[in-house]
Amino acid sequence: MNKKDSGTDRRDFLQSGLLGTAAAGLAIASTSHVTAQTVPDALEPEVTNDVDVLVVGGGTAGHVAAIQAGRAGAKTLLVERGAQLGGTTTTGGVSFPGLFDAWGKQVIAGIGWELVKESVELDGGTLPNFARVPQRHWQNQVLTNQFLYALLAEEKCTKAGVEIAYYEFPQAVTKTESGWTVNCVGFGTRRRVNCKQIIDCTGGAEVVGMVGFSRLREEERQPGSYLYRLGDGHEPGRTRLNRLYVHGADSTNSRTVTVANMTGRMSILDRVRKEKKRLTHLQPETGFRESYRIDGETLITVNDYTSGRVFDDAISYAFYPVDLHTKTGVRPKPLKPGKVPTIPLSALIPKGSRNIIVAGRCVSSDRLANSGLRVQASCMGMGQAAGVAATLAAKSGTTPLEVPLPEIHAVLREHGQIIPGRA
User: Is residue 318 part of a domain?
Assistant: First the structure.
């Protein structure tokens, strides 16, 4: 058989096979095309960025911080070791973020709410009625299409002028006269970042630990959750996923995360075999509830949280029950009617530091307070405030804690955030 005959036979075989599949009533996926932009100097392993603000971690707080910094005029780089933005909402699969409301009114808005609202509207979903106080707190969590959310977050970063570096993470952080030099690494890439301010949104304050500031952590940690679906197919933005507790889940480093992920996956595989149901959805990794927290200029106690203390330097509200998960499950302790906690700027600042701020679940707090503060809406509010504080500090050549609070509040209001006020 010559080469021409061989090629003809192969095409005939493929065509007859496809026709046979179609005749059997199976749909054949169509192929569309898009062309990626050429990356300048793509084959060069060394990259240098000179920026105002470096955001490390594109999760719940990080992507909001980056969007805010970009919109406020800072040259911003966002480094994320994973493949997408959104963290717990997307990669973790907790695609029902909350809580944005308390006692019949919205208390957290801004960029995080903008993303949630747009993703629900684009998906044809339904938003809760915040004027109605629910019997159970979870009833006002917003069912969100996690895939749309990740796409919108990326689009908003791009429109804000934020450069995104996926698959990269800092290896070394060095203090300089004007800020920091951060050496990051990814496969085939070594990136040197010269920045004026760092926003650490890694969840466990990993950059804070790298530069030698104190962090807090208990010996016991809340279980992680691995989200999946058995049986009927998952409908993003309409249904919630099944949850598997992964006890002992530890997000300290790549080795401990690997163990947590593999433990969760093996358990889910065992369930598939035992229950003889189809596995119709599986998140790529465990969602972690608890890790390191910073030892900040202010530490939020559970009494501060449950009493609704309005800190002098409050930059955002928070709202969620005290929600400590254990081996026997979770029994949320709702806040008393009318109580709405606040988050001070000084709880985002590592004690004794300059030119570095955090946002997210690593906020300076005791364990019980953190069990309520760690949820998505509160972390989004922290991220937006950190983005403003870091940007204003970079512009004025100072550090976030020394930026006048009225200036931070003014920019936050300009970008839709709700600022805590005294009665």
Answer: yes
Q: What is the pLDDT of residues 171-209, one digit of tens each?
A: 999 999 999 999 999 999 999 999 999 999 999 999 999
Q: Residue 6: inside a domain, yes or no?
A: no
| pLDDT score at 296 | 98
Has residue 37 been placed in a domain?
A: no
Q: What's the rounded Cα separation, in Å, for the pair 189 and 171?
A: 12
The enclosing domain of 348 has a CATH number of 3.50.50.60
Same domain assignment for residues 174 and 320: yes
Task: Tell me the residue range of the domain where 255 lies.
Answer: 224-282
- 64-112: pLDDT as tens digits: 999 999 999 999 999 999 999 999 999 999 999 999 999 999 999 999 9
In a domain, 40, yes or no: no
What total of structural domains would you count in the chain? Answer: 2
